[in-house]
# Entry
Amino acid sequence: MTSMKDITISARVPEELGQQVDRLAAAANRNRSWVVEEALRAYLAKEVQFLEAVERGIEAYKRGDVLDHAEVVALFEQRRQLEEKAK
# Structure
């Protein structure tokens, strides 16, 4: 198993955000670095997922695999009506 080398990243954050990090670190019995690393991992995972979805959308557009606005509105209206009937 390959070990990843740690690096230091400095960031200036508002005092309130720093206090939130400290409170979470204390509650989780962890240090600030752990909290920041977990937050950064979660943020990056979400952003990567979003960018991949955008890329899939661009590729679909290039293939012509798209719906115009009226079709999307009609599909959502059909779905809404089905959900209303199911209630």
